[in-house]
Structure formats: C-alpha cells, structure tokens
Amino acid sequence: MSRHLSRRTFVAAAGAALATTTVGLSASSAAEAGRPRPPKPTVVLVHGGFADASASWNGVIARLQDRGYPVIAPANPLRNLPYDAAYVASVLASINGPVVLAGHSYGGAVITNAAASAPNVKALVYIAAFVPDVGEALGELIAKYPGSEIQAALNPVPYPNPDGSTGTDLYLQTDQLRRVFAADLPTSTTTLLAATQRPFSAQCFADLTQAAAWRTIPSWGLVATQDLAIPPALQRFEYQRANARGTVSVAASHCAMVSHPELTADLIERAVNSIN
Q1: Does residue 30 form part of some domain?
Q2: Number of structural domains the chain divides into
Q3: Residue 270's domain spans which residues?
Q4: How far is CA 198 from CA 42, 48, 49, 194, 203, in A?
Q5: CATH code at 65?
Q6: What pLDDT score was predicted for residue 90?
Q7: Is 158 helix (H, G, I), strand (E, B) or coil?
Q8: The whole model's pTM is what?
Q9: What's the confidence (pLDDT) of residue 36?
Q10: Mean pLDDT (10-residue bins), the chain, 276 residues
C-alpha cells in the first residue's frame, strides 16, 4: 500500500513539474514574442540622368512604404560625378541606422562612389545601371558593348560655368526619348518625361570613378533586356564583375523600375533581407 501511494505521489509530482516547465516556457516565448523588432533599414533611391526622383521611383517608393520601409529618394544634382557622389554621401551621413542604397542608370555610378565613404550602407542595388570600377569613365564604359543608341538621341546645350567657362548639358530629343529610353511606357508618360527632363552635364561621362564600393559591399542587379541606353551585355558584365549576389532579368526598357516597380521593389527587399 505504501509503495502504491509513493508511486502515485511521484506521478503527481512529475506532472506538476512538467506543468511548471510548460508554463515557464510559454512565458518565455511570450516575452520573446513581445520584444520589439529592430527597425527596418532605410532604402535610399538615386535616379539617373535626364530624370528626377519622383518620375523615376514613385512606383517603387509606394510599394516599399506599403511594406513598412522608410524610403528617401534625393535629388541627384547631375553636375559631375565627384560632386554628385559627395552630395549623395552627405544624404547618407544624415541617416541613422543601416541603409540599402539603389541606383538607376547614371545613379549606379553615383552610388558606387558615394557608398565608399558611408559605413552605414549595407547593400547596393543596381537597376539597369552603370557599375564602374576605379579609373573608369562612363563614356568609355558604355562603348564596351554594342547596342546603345543614346548618343544619337542627345541634344547638347551649352551653359555657363561660374568660372566663366562653358559646359554642356545633355537632353534627350523629344521625338527620340520614348524609343531609346522608355519604349515600354505609355505615350502619355513619356510625353511628360520629355517635358520635365533634368539637364544632365556631359562632364558626368568624362569623370573617372574614384572608388568602387561594390568591392566591399554586397550588391544585386537588374538587367533590362530591351535597354537601348545601357546595353544589356554591359549590365551583365558589370554585375558579374561586382560578384552580385543576385540578379534578375526583365524584358524592359531602360526605365525598368517605372514599368516594373513590383519586381524592382522585390529585388531591393532581397537585398534588405540579406542584412537582417
């Protein structure tokens, strides 16, 4: 009889211990679940030549904000590569916390230089972009592979520099912009792009890249396979040279982030997830 009671007592004690352990684990899990998640990194989007931040990135911005990301799309001055990179670097320095930095077209060259002095940049995303190495000029890089028709579509306009010399701004001819720059966008959209395009200094194609941030910062790339501005073959070469961790290809014009904002946002989010 005493042996039987002892066994029952043991079973009851074990059950109580198990219940206590379960409650403890549940409380621990609840506490873990209640911990605030770290804030999401800021996504900074840098536009390229002839364009502004809103026309280039509005669709991508809306999708990233819907996913909870803070987004900044600063104005790229489009004056010369050292100046533009320094300006974007100053924007990056004003941001607390990690940054995922994306650039379209000439904006790729700008972020390549700017991120080298920005320790908070954790990933680079190139959208139909230039990805130059140290010592390269974009005017030479764009001729590495055939296929660019942008030069024939340019309208050069002289402008005075502060020192009295004369510079040259580049615009896309209105009747050529849609064909070489944004053939997969509605005519109503490209008409607005032509009317509101920003002056793009020819000096940007002559300046040499001073730093290649992709050598130390992981990168991702989007290839626009119908691009008549930066040849798709050049985009693939650049992303491969940069050891891009992931690339996507899409049948799109040079303005791939405008015609495919969801795909662009997905690629940026892949870069974000790599640093979390």
Answers
A1: no
A2: 1
A3: 42-275
A4: 26, 10, 7, 9, 15
A5: 3.40.50.1820
A6: 98
A7: strand
A8: 0.87
A9: 67
A10: 43 43 40 65 98 97 98 98 98 98 98 98 98 98 97 96 94 96 97 96 98 98 98 98 98 98 98 90
d(CA 75, CA 73): 7
For residue 37, the model assigns a pLDDT of 72
Residue 114 in contact with residue 88, Cβ under 8 Å?
yes
Residue 240 falls inside a structural domain: yes
Q: Residue 15: inside a domain, yes or no? A: no
Is there a contact between 172 and 180 (Cβ–Cβ < 8 Å)?
A: yes
Q: How far is CA 177 from CA 140, 142, 182, in A?
A: 22, 18, 7
In a domain, 8, yes or no: no
Query: By the 8 A CB rule, do 120 and 95 touch?
Result: yes
- Total residue count of the chain as it appears in this document: 276
> Please, are residues 217 and 131 in contact by the beta-carbon 8 Å criterion?
no
Q: Give the pLDDT score at 150.
A: 96
Q: Long-range contacts: 134-139, Cβ < 8 Å, 24+?
A: 134/208, 134/209, 134/210, 134/211, 134/212, 135/208, 135/209, 136/208, 136/209, 137/205, 137/206, 137/207, 137/208, 137/209, 138/81, 138/106, 138/109, 138/204, 138/205, 138/207, 139/205, 139/206
Structure tokens at 174: 């209105």
Buried/exposed code over 179-192 (b: 16+ C-beta within 10 A; e: otherwise)? ebbbbbbeeeebee
Which pLDDT value is given to residue 263? 98
